[in-house]
Amino acid sequence: MDTKVVCNVRCMITALTGIQRYTQEVLSGFPPDMIEEVAPSPDIARGFKGHMWEQLYLPGLLKGRLLFSPSITGPLAVKNQVVVIHDVVPLQHPEWINKYFAKWYQQLLPRLGKQVKHIIAISDFTKQTILEHIDIPESKISVVYNGVNHDFLTGESAPLSIPFNRYVLSLGSLEPRKNLPLLLKAWKNILHKIPEDVGLVVVGKKGSPLVFSSNNIDEIPERVYFTGHVSDEHIPWLYTNAMFFAYLSFYEGFGLPPLEAMATGCPVLAGNKTAIPEVISDAGLLVDPYSLAEIEAGMLKYFEDDEARKKMGEKGKERAKFFNWKKTSAQTWDIIDQFRN
Q: What keywords sit in the KW lines (predicted)?
């Protein structure tokens, strides 16, 4: 009997984001002769057609073999399956995402969680939220943390032209949970208290003005630079040369960007909610992401205390050593291997 594991890589057809990066890194450490990657053609990979391929066509490819689904979703007809759940945002905060996407996953996730043989959660926070929303035994879930590509983050990287002598770095996703508008408010409020050669660099596009107007931001504050899309070759340089990295997300199933910053020695200012404290521990400055005053105080702390920045940079780099993709991949394969036969 063929004991290869079938890996559902439908997610890899789309643009490279967090889940795609996770899938790429984890699969790269699996024994290549023991897996078979399957995906639909690009023209039907997304949206309704993609879900129908996954639910109706994919089960017919398995022929009794174990299915590994690394991106939250998987076919409900397949019990012989290990699925990775990164977060349960559709169940906890459907108002943050597309309403059709939310409705689909509200129907899918509870059924999938009960049906599959095993679930991998990327943090203990995610594990606990799964248990809160899906009636399954705790023994059905294993926690395997995400990793960091240390070679990539500490190797050679390409500089990016920045219009400031010094800068604070942030990621500019305009999902509501990323909390960029409150960061911009805090930045505007402290501008008169910080050196004039320092700017805020936001990796990403400005996006819809509605995101800002709904948060009482009429215009982008001074000394804020949106890079637009940035290729991977520039990311390590941006982390390494930043004064600190600001990541005030309301909700994360894990929180990879602050961990990547830590791996380069960049001090981190981050929200103290959901999985972020579990990942960062005491190796970053944690604040209430809902509190404008705490965000302002955290940024001013780093601006005014060079020793605090240095200390957090060193602690962060040490903490990040605990996480690497080789370990993530090996632990994930060990779980899969238990169910493979």
A: Transferase
The span from the CA of 256 to the CA of 123, in Å, is: 11
Query: What is the rounded distance in angstroms from the CA atom of residue 313 to the CA atom of residue 90?
Result: 34
* CB 10 within 8 Å of CB 68: no
Nearest to 285 by CA among 253, 303, 308: 308
> What's at 186, amino acid-wise?
A
Backbone angles phi, psi at 186, to 5 degrees: -60, -40
Identify which of 143, 138, 134, 142 has the alpha carbon closest to the alpha carbon of residue 113: 134
HSE at residue 174, side-chain half, CA atoms within 13 A, is: 14
pLDDT tens digits along 272-326: 999 999 999 999 999 999 999 999 999 999 999 999 999 999 999 999 999 999 9
Q: What is the pLDDT of residues 169-178, one digit of tens each?
A: 998 666 788 8
Q: CA-to-CA distance for 142 and 126, rounded, in angstroms?
A: 10
HEC per residue, 289-335: CCCHHHHHHHHHHHHHCHHHHHHHHHHHHHHHCCCCHHHHHHHHHHH
Contact 146, 169 (CB under 8 A): no
**What are the Cα distances from residue 131, in Å, to 95, 128, 138?**
21, 5, 7
Query: What are the Cα distances from residue 154, in Å, to 71, 88, 148, 196, 263?
Result: 27, 32, 11, 29, 8
Q: Which domains are seen in the chain, by residue range?
A: 5-147+324-340 (3.40.50.2000), 151-320 (3.40.50.2000)
Tokens of 126: 């995610």
Cβ(142)–Cβ(213) below 8 Å: no
215 class by beta-carbon count within 10 Å (0-12 exposed, 13-18 middle, 19+ buried): middle
- Which tokens hold the place of 155? 């190797």
- Separation CA 90–CA 98 (nearest Å): 9
DSSP string, 190-253: HGGGS-TTEEEEEEB----HHHHHTTT--SPPTTEEE-BS--GGGHHHHHHH-S-EEE--S--S
Report phi then psi at 331, rounded to 5: -65, -35
Residue 60 in tokens:
């017919």
